[in-house]
Amino acid sequence: MSDQHNESARDPLDQALASLSRDVQPSRDLWAGISAEISASSPVTSSPRHSVTSSRSWLQLAASVVLIVASSITTYVVVHRSMQEQVLQAQQSATQQLQQAPVLPAMPASFGGQEAMGAGYVQARAALDKEFQQRIATLPPVTRAKLERDLADLRRAAADISATLARHPSDPLLQELLLSTYQSELGMLGSVTDMTNATETRL
Amino acid sequence: MRAILSMTAAALLLTGLPARAEDVERTAPADPRGQVEIVTASGEIHVRGWDRPEVKVTASISSSEQLRVDSSDQHTSIRVVRSNGGPTHGATDLIVNVPRTSALTVSTISADQTIEDVRGAQRLQAVSGSVTTQVWSEELQVKTISGDIEIRGNKDSSEVSIQTTSGDITLADTAGDLTLETVTGDMDVSMKELSRGRIHTTNGDLHLRTRLAGDARLDAEAINGDLRFILRKPVEAEFDVETFNGAIDNCFGPKSVRTREFAPGNALRFKEGSGGARVRVKTLNGGVEICKE
User: Distance between the two ends of chain B, CA-based, in angstroms?
Assistant: First the structure.
């Protein structure tokens, strides 16, 4: 060990390195500037950014799923209707009755109050809702009242979850339940339309 | 003036009151494994399975309606149609005998359905009407709008799918796969064994009593409805329960834990026995109770 140390001591390069100063003092105090930069950028942290990105991705996925369901139901209803000539007659009759029927408000759909659902979803929902209103106008008053109450319950539940989600935007349970409630609403609109159409046209 | 009143009264009698009911009977040959379809509005339908290779329809029908029975090799269609194309004023009661192993499709508006001893697949739809039926080993699909559903099984394994908006569901002595969807209707379900279950309710309560198959999968979701599971031994399952505002009551021992520091939320995860089955429950405000029988 001491031999090695002695040999390095004799090396000219080592001697040159040993002659260098171990600390280099800056020409001025840099810490004040560094501290100011850190303070200026401190509100942005990696965690919320990840949460927002994750939430956005989730929202896009959720909106896609809802849109697919809505589009499928709408397409089915439209195709089904076009195949059944007699439905037109029933619709004309239903439309006349609809003008006298109370209108059930369709609340705007949003995802936790942060982002409204996409235009495709809104259009599909509006089309289904219109068809639904026409169909239930042909049903007995007691049945119509029950359906309107059930639809109002669904929409109230969706509004409640959406409002809660606005307070807890990254909660996956709320996101999942809101998505399934929207799907239930679309399912109910489509199912009522389909069932009444199918039975009426066969009679 | 008196003449005008008389004419008005006569017109009302012709258009507004039920026409006189007439008893009609039709019989048609039918394949024992064929399909029978029944469509009608208003009244009651009673379908019974029997041993004969024919369909027999007995109807009490108003003069403003017609009974149509069309039969081909595999398909028999029974319809009560309006003679004038206008709205029906009468209530037609149908008693239909079909081959016991027939596949049955029934679609009604404002009519109650009762089906007995039909062992083929059934697809039953009722708009404003109840459905009462039995299930054997074939598939059963029931959809109602504002109508109660009562199903009795024979402990055979089958695939049952039920969708209703405000009707209550009573299901007893079935086994196999189960799908339930309701908005406000309550569900009272008793099964011999559950293999696959998907349950969704908005405001309706669930009471499910069953044994879980070894590899069972059960997913249940509620917004405001309470979910109660009574499980028969042996219970070999993993449980994953999560609620936002609801309470969790677990008879198996493990307690739920809070999932959020500054917000509501409870979760319960535990394994009972070997844990081959999976039970996944999610609610917003609904309570969850899991107990063993």
Answer: 76
Specify the higher pLDDT residue, B173 or A104.
B173
**Residue B227 has what pLDDT?**
98
- Residue bearing tokens 């108003």: B62
Neighboring chain B residues of A160 at a CB cutoff of 8 Å: 284
pLDDT along chain A (203 residues), means of 10: 48 62 60 61 40 53 61 55 43 39 51 64 87 88 88 92 90 92 90 80 64
For residues B46 and B142, state if they share a domain. no
CB contacts, 8 Å: B125 with chain A? 195, 198-199
Which residue of A146, A184, A199 is in closest CB contact with B125? A199
- Residue showing tokens 């996944």: B280
Is residue B206 located within the same domain as residue B256?
A: yes
Q: Which domain holds residue B188?
A: 130-293
Angle subtended at Cα B202 by Cα A141 and Cα A81, rounded to the nearest 5 degrees = 55
Interface contact A195, partner B, CB < 8 A? yes
CB B43 within 8 A of CB B18: no
Task: Collect all residues with Cβ–Cβ distance below 8 Å to A181 and sequence separation of at least 6.
Answer: A154, A157, A158, A161, B202, B223
Nearest CA in chain A to B146: A143
Q: Give the tens place of pLDDT for each residue, B44-74.
A: 999 999 999 999 999 988 877 889 999 988 9
Within-domain flag for B31: yes
Chain A residue numbers with beta carbons less than 8 Å from the beta carbon of B145 are 143, 146-147, 191-192, 195
Instruction: Measure in Å the smallest separation between the Cα of B3 and chain A Cα atoms.
Output: 33
Is residue B292 domain-shared with residue B185, that is, in the same domain? yes
Q: Decide if B223 and A177 are in contact by the 8 Å CB cutoff.
A: yes
Distance CA B165, CA B184 (A): 6
Phi, psi of A120 (to 5 degrees): -60, -45
Same domain, B161 and B248: yes
First to last CA, chain A: 106
Instruction: Write down the ipTM of this complex.
Output: 0.80
